[in-house]
Amino acid sequence: MKTKYLICTILFSINLAAFAQNYTVPLTVTTNTDYPLTFNNTDNSWQYIQFKRSGTRKFWMGLDAGNNFKFTKEGGGDFLFAGGNFKLTDSNLLGSFVSTNAYSWIDIKNNQGGASLGYNNDFFWIGTGGAPADGFTIQGNNIGMGTAAPVAKLDIKHTGTIGAKFLPSKAYLRLGDGTVDMIMDGNEIYTNGVLALGSSYSQGIIFRNVDASGRQDLMMINHNGNVGIGTNTPSSKLQVEGNAQVSNDLVVLNNIDAKSVEVSTDPGSFPDYVFKSDYKLRSLDELQTFIKQNGHLPNIPKAEYVETNGQNLGFIQQKLLEKIEELTLYIIEADKQNSKLKSSLESLTKRLEALEKGISKSKN
Fold this sequence. Notes:
With 364 residues, the protein is α+β, with helices and mostly antiparallel strands. It has helices at 284-294, 303-309, 313-363; strands at 4-8, 13-16, 19-22, 27-31, 47-53, 56-63, 69-73, 103-110, 113-120, 123-127, 136-139, 142-145, 154-156, 173-176, 181-184, 189-191, 205-211, 214-221, 227-229, 238-240.
């Protein structure tokens, strides 16, 4: 139906030049034109329609002197839009919400709760309760969560830690699909799957300490798997520049190349005890008997044991030194015996020479 109509069920007045007409009954305007009612103000000033209740204005709408169309609610109450969708259409700008206060926001509520979005000074926020900093904020094109003043492109602030446990509910950030997840806080990163850490091929991974003034590189893993501690250019699978301490077992299946190796020892275990007066040195006969019975030197492990269990470098070095010191004592003792034999031989030689002289004289 082309007929268009406007029904006004309120009391209003129209000022027409020199007279005003009051209507105290509902007014119905019926027309088939696109503009059933026109208001024209020739002084280019305010032009509006006002709605009163018991003589008191409650709402007005119209043009102000700046050609802005305004809706103004007075005396309490809300703007309610019912029975359809509220739409703003324009080629670019859909609309503006302007407040004269520093804090301005919009609340969205239902019977389950509510949320708000707003602007304060220089940051925008979205939240579901509490202070704006408790929600999602944008300031200077930085995004903040838990902060009203984000200093990075994404700035997440929270309190507490994961606590060295896999607890997604305490994490600052969670990435995953609910089955395999990575969680993190300010100083912890965990996953319930395989954590792969790497870089593109031909690049490496550096672990370092940093502060506001600089950095200290601690460990480098280069692209071919070489690990450097104290160096960023490791040339072998493990290269350590500086001292290294291993408290338990260190298993090396191939060669070790080192400029020096320090092996610590327990007090009293170094074999200087061999040179003490109360040390019981086996006689050579006793040593020979032991070797025939056992097939190795005393205090030296059997070949079968070393082949099966390996050898303790520090222990073997001590025992080898023990044998060298025992050998030194044997040499010293042998030298003493040799000196005695030499002295006896010299004495016998002199006696023999004297006898030969006596025999020669008797013949003459």
